[in-house]
Write a structure and sequence with these properties.
single chain, alpha+beta, Jelly Rolls, Phosphorylase Kinase, domain 1, 4 domains, twelve-stranded mixed beta sheet, binds 2-acetamido-2-deoxy-beta-D-glucopyranose
Length: 872
């Protein structure tokens, strides 16, 4: 049950309207002829991110709906509904118990139609009663659709959008009609927002068939076309191995590209190479608008260690409705330094467990740095009376002799549902979700040690509560591994062979000594309870790394050291500091991490040697860190609680990308599904500590949310979480900032360097998010996902207000906040004394790659009656 394709519509920036694109590298972007955004139920228009959301309820609106009975109403969600998104177009809705339609006079050609929904109680309309159909250009897009059942099934979202592609003929008017399901008196139809955006003729539709360009249909011998009589529904669009791409960063069509972590279902999750320096060479067949650069310069591969890559298959699974054909587009681009010749990396591709390519070879398809995609179609038919099934995409390595590296690569994945011959795209509603399944995830706790000062402060400020709960998580890890070998006679390689050496590299002690000039003190960049952190260079001086040398007297046993390596090497995320490798000698235990050239966020807030960070950059850093925590909380199978979120644990690389650190040295938590929290001794850093956690010693992911709320206020005010010299009421930043917000005096505590640069809308939103994170009860705090969304929205408010201001004065956009990123000097990542390396483990997921029996004749049967050469 995965969230639907979410669209950050409010992060959108019109590319046509601006002389200079504020979204970065959009040269070569597509400029849609039709780019219509309707804010349904609103009587005003709002410029959000440069796109004008036109209210359909304004006087003489071009987009007032057409109705037979004139009985539709407009409304805002009842204020009692939880988690109102607070963003255009979700604030208002058009609702009716009879039919209504929108009419769009658009040019001919294929269009994206995006429908935005926020299922909620609206005055006189109950959330659970929405059942309606949507038709457009003769296609049924939705039928008897329940927005609330859909949102509950995919239960991490309260609002969502659905994206369709359909083609408008010459002289055709595009009507979108909403019809409540007949037969139930309470049924009503509603919609919060509508987008209609043109797309290039041949972006997804395809009328050419040759050996490479047609769509290979699983089980059919010859390729097919996809002509414009078909409509599509986007099911998933994944930037494989890469970052979330918001609509504004798409190539002009406002598509959203999700992170693929949640969809990798094989036991081994592969490795994530990236090459941001490669100059991508687009072609006529794959023009630049096909997908953003960031899709092609990041990837997921199986790794070049044959023993490992030949032992598993890399699989993605996406849930889809049964009884439809699906278009599966796989995006590829070779950018790794090792891969240059045909057969360097040739591999197998399976779709729905059926082999569709026995020797995929990206270099020979397109060449180095040249993006290319392949389209497949597959029928997923109902074999088990289920409404939904998983569509899988699987890569398999080829053995020696067929390829140099037994490896495989995927850069992007798009999955579309294809309309049936009777022009239908609608599936059935999911069954109502039992409330139990919405319970919080099981937690896995990051362990750690606590500095004495912090303990003292805790005892002092928090009434001397004792840490009485035993850390219940400390002894659970053995079964994963079997007995740890105590043998010292075996060679290192053998002894550690169960470790993921493709994900994580082994360094000899000699290499580490060379890298640090035999642990020279001048290379120390951090000191912690566990030992020292050195800056060093490996690979003959080419790669800077941070080297953590564990004290010989450190409590961390060999077992925990292993666990950390195994776990950290699997936890890969753009916004988490990654473990590069380790070194284990008779006496030494050493961990090698990515070096973070710009040190900690804390350094940039308090160290006056650094120029003050501009506001937008601070926001971006917060968004990055929030993504990292979100990944810890929900990207892995089990929730991982960081437990020590603070500005000294948010590191910045040379490109100012925020990375959460010190989630290492993990302990595996309880595995019973019934547990929603972990009882543990209170650990953390004073000033950031969740009061609920402190009181009840119940740790949940919401404890991190609290700490992150403190981080947000720190970023806003450039004031430490605890100022011991300050007047009593100002000692704790959390308390002081909350009281200032409540009394409307927040501007007084904003960092003086930011005065005048934060727009009031952005400041309000930012404070609202930070305040919600600091809610006393964990249950009332937002999830990190909500925080990411909220912060993105705050950023958007900032950007759009700046844009409006510039538009008004008629000058081109100059983004002053982005100035002079290079001014700051390169410094080491400071690891502070209270930091405790701690973390969690993502369990190995049971593989879903076993071949399901599926007879090809089913496909043939179902296609037999349609035109040869076309998809049914
Ligand atoms: C627009 O709608 C809001 C509430 O939704 C209402 O308060 C306001 O009076 C309306 N304005 C106009 C011009 O109708
Ligand atoms: C679309 O609506 C207009 C009226 O707004 C109507 O004249 C036209 O026939 C409709 N087109 C279709 C294809 O239903
Ligand atoms: C990125 O690609 C360029 C050009 O092929 C190459 O020179 C460079 O080494 C690559 N970088 C990485 C990290 O693979
Ligand atoms: C880009 O690709 C074309 C052919 O696909 C080739 O002729 C050209 O040299 C390439 N350019 C670069 C910079 O690699
Ligand atoms: C699809 O796979 C996921 C993860 O393996 C699983 O949780 C889900 O129940 C599957 N859905 C269906 C319909 O089988
Ligand atoms: C509409 O969907 C609901 C829930 O899935 C179902 O109970 C009802 O029978 C459906 N109604 C029609 C007319 O299909």
């Amino acid at each position: 049950m995965k969230p639907p394709l979410l669209l950050f519509i409010f992060i959108s920036v019109s590319l046509e309207a601006l002389p200079v694109s504020v979204t970065g590298n959009n040269v070569g972007a597509y400029h849609p002829t039709d780019d219509i955004t309707v804010d349904c139920g609103s009587n005003t228009s709002s410029l959000v991110g440069g796109r004008n959301w036109i209210g359909d309820a304004a006087d003489r609106s071009d987009y007032s709906p057409i109705e037979k009975t004139h009985s539709s109403t407009t409304a805002e969600a009842s204020s009692s509904s939880p988690s109102i998104p607070g963003a255009v177009p979700y604030l208002t809705a058009r609702l009716s118990r009879s039919e209504f339609a929108y009419t769009f006079h658009v040019t001919a050609g294929p269009k994206f139609v995006r429908l935005h929904f926020f299922p909620s109680d609206y005055p006189n309309f109950r959330r659970v009663d929405s059942f309606f159909s949507v038709e457009a250009a003769g296609y049924t897009l939705l039928r008897n659709f329940s927005a609330s059942l859909f949102a509950d099934y995919t239960h991490s979202v309260s609002f969502f959008s659905k994206e369709f592609c359909l083609s408008v003929r010459e002289d055709q008017i595009l009507n979108i009609t909403f019809t409540p399901t007949p037969g139930t008196s309470d049924a009503y139809a509603f919609v919060n927002g509508i987008e209609v955006v043109s797309m290039p003729e041949s972006l997804y539709y395809n009328t050419v068939v040759d050996s490479t360009e047609g769509i290979k249909v699983v089980g059919l011998p010859s390729p097919r076309t996809l002509d414009t009589t078909k409509a599509l529904e986007a099911v998933r669009r994944l930037n494989v191995g890469g970052q979330f791409v918001v609509p504004a960063d798409d190539t002009g069509m406002y598509r959203t590209w999700e992170v693929d972590d949640d969809y990798v279902t094989s036991s081994n999750i592969g490795v994530l190479p990236v090459n941001t320096t490669i100059q991508l060479n687009y072609s006529e067949k794959v023009p630049k608008y096909t997908a953003p650069d960031s899709v092609y310069n990041t990837a997921r591969t199986m790794g070049t260690d044959k023993r490992i890559s030949l032992s598993y298959k890399l699989t993605w699974s996406v849930e889809v409705d049964v009884n439809f054909y699906y278009l599966v587009r796989l995006h590829f681009c070779e950018f790794q330094i090792e891969i240059n010749e045909p057969l360097d990396r040739a591999f197998e591709i399976f779709i729905d467990s059926q082999l569709v390519e026995d020797r995929a070879d990206v270099i020979s398809w397109s060449g180095k740095g040249v993006p290319v995609y392949r389209d497949f179609a597959v029928a997923l038919l109902d074999h088990s009376q289920k409404k939904r099934t998983n569509l899988s995409v699987t890569l398999g390595a080829l053995p020696d002799g067929s390829t140099l590296y037994s490896d495989a690569i995927l850069n992007g994945l798009e999955i579309f549902k294809i309309s049936t011959p009777d022009r239908n795209l609608a599936g059935l509603n999911p069954d109502p979700t039992p409330p139990a399944s919405k319970a919080a995830k099981i937690a896995i706790v990051a362990g750690g040690t606590l500095g004495c000062t912090v303990l003292f402060l805790l005892a002092f400020f928090l009434h001397r509560r004792k840490n009485r709960a035993k850390d219940s998580t400390s002894s659970d890890g053995t079964s994963w591994w079997g007995p740890v070998s105590r043998s010292t006679t075996k060679s290192m390689k053998t002894q550690w062979s169960s470790l993921p050496l493709d994900l994580c590299r082994y360094f000899s002690l000699a290499e580490i000594r060379a890298a640090t000039n035999n642990f020279d003190k001048v290379f120390i960049i951090g000191v912690g309870g566990f030992g020292n952190v050195y800056k060093g260079y490996v690979d003959g001086g080419a790669t800077p790394v941070a080297i953590k040398r564990l004290n010989q007297g450190s409590q961390q046993g060999l077992h925990e050291f292993r666990t950390e390596i195994e776990m950290l090497s699997q936890l890969r995320h753009l916004h988490l500091v990654s473990l590069i490798g380790f070194c284990k000698d008779a006496r030494e235990m050493i961990l090698v991490y990515d070096y973070m050239a710009r040190g900690t966020l804390s350094d940039h807030l308090y160290n006056t040697d650094n120029p003050p960070l501009p506001w937008k950059q601070r926001l971006e850093i917060c968004i990055g860190a929030a993504w990292g925590l979100h990944y810890l909380h929900s990207g892995a199978k089990h929730t991982i609680i960081h437990r020590d979120v603070k500005t000294t644990n948010i590191l910045l690389n040379e490109k100012w990308v925020a990375k959460v650190s010190d989630f290492g040295l993990s302990k595996v938590g309880p595995t019973s599904e019934s547990k929603t929290h972990v009882s543990t001794a209170v650990k953390g850093t004073f000033g950031y500590l969740d009061p609920e956690y402190y009181r009840h010693q119940r740790l949940t992911d919401k404890s991190d949310v609290y700490s992150f709320g403190v981080v947000l206020f720190e970023v806003l005010c450039a004031r430490p979480a605890v100022s011991r010299m300050a007047p009593m009421e100002q000692i704790s930043l959390a308390e002081w900032a909350q009281s200032c917000c409540k009394s409307g005096a927040v501007e007084e505590i904003v960092d003086p360097h930011l005065k005048g640069s934060i727009t009031p809308e952005c400041l309000n939103k930012f404070c609202e998010i930070a305040m919600s994170c600091l809610q006393d009860k964990g249950a009332n705090r937002p999830s990190m996902n909500d925080v990411v969304w909220g912060l993105n929205f705050a950023l958007q408010l900032q950007v759009s207000t700046e844009l409006e201001a510039t538009d008004r004065v008629g000058v081109s956009v100059h983004d002053s906040d982005d100035s002079d990123h290079d001014a700051a000097s390169i410094r080491g990542s400071g690891s502070d004394e209270a930091s405790n390396t701690s973390g969690g483990w993502k369990s190995s997921r049971e593989t879903a790659t076993s071949t399901r029996a599926r007879s090809n004749d089913v496909c043939d049967e179902s296609t037999a009656s349609y035109d040869a050469g076309k998809l049914p």
